[in-house]
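User:
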Amino acid sequence: MNALRIVRLANFVTPSSGGLRTALHALGSGYRTAGHEPVLIVPGERASDEDTEQGRVITLPGTELPGTGGYRVLAARRRLRDVLEDIAPDRLEVSDRTTLRWTGEWARRHRIPSVMVSHETADGVLRTWGVPGAAAARAADRLNTRSAWAYSRIVCTTEWAEREFLRIGARNVVRAPLGVDLDRCRPQRRDPALRARYTRGGAPDVLLLLGSRLSVEKRPGAALDTLAELRRRGVRASLVVAGEGPLRAGLARRAGAQGLPVVFLGHVGDRAAMAGLQASADICLAPGPAETFGLSALEALACGTPVVASASSALPEVIGDAGRAAADDAASFADAVEDLLARPEDTRRAAARARAELFGWDTSVAAFLAAHDARPVASAPRPHGTCPHGTPR
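Assistant: Predicted structure:
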């Protein structure tokens, strides 16, 4: 097989993005190592074109969406279409099921096999924004029917995410899990001094961690609800929030007004530092009800930290017995936290790491390449600092 130029499109990516940014980087790096030519096109404040470990990254000026904390979209169709026609992809991979759905039809007209990656469920996101369940399901079915027609294949990262496409009878759905960096995220990063800093130094204290974008669909307020409930029960718990987003200011005001011991770190850009936080926490909270995979939760598991996740999301499928699924209320989350803490620490941390080891990025890259009908080619990866066509920049 010859090297394929796999052009990837994504919206809602910023320098402080979480799971999607991580997945794009890991998959692009994997495609490149496999001998293919990954090209990522994302929106930004200004135009740029550079070669990176994940391949060529083209940034096009994008429209900023108010109230989203800096998210931008590739709204200029003509410009994006011109770029696509100039690059001439062999494969198209799209990580946006709404504003970029037209690219599937573009690819169909140009006879280019295309893949849409479902990073969230349509009805789940609509419900988190207040749309009633039945109306959300109907709207999602209409959207998903159009998406399944537009793209050659729909990639879902979990069985949970796949269900809404199977519900409409889509026959072009494939499953490909995401992965985790098992070298960067490891239990050995646990730091007693770091943990003591956030638990006020008290040995019996419990350190909770929320690693999430602070936006409506992630339900970060549920972490504060859980903390308040645990402290009402007499559990000396504290919470560290690693993430940025439009809800941060309101959450900080609420924590101050209620006297809750919460530290807001903002976006933690140092991946090693984030892994240190994940390893040093006792429990990681993942309250988002519309999560289709949950990379932050999987990273916590790899660091040896069990997870309490929303039972409404896909995370119970991912975390298995290395965590607990809870109903979307403070009492249920607090019950799950106490249940995990009742297990011997060594046992629960070993179970978390063992579960994460089932999700290496090599497996994920192979599954995504299979969705493109691609396989590794017999050529060495190009050195960093060259264009996808081998020309030095």
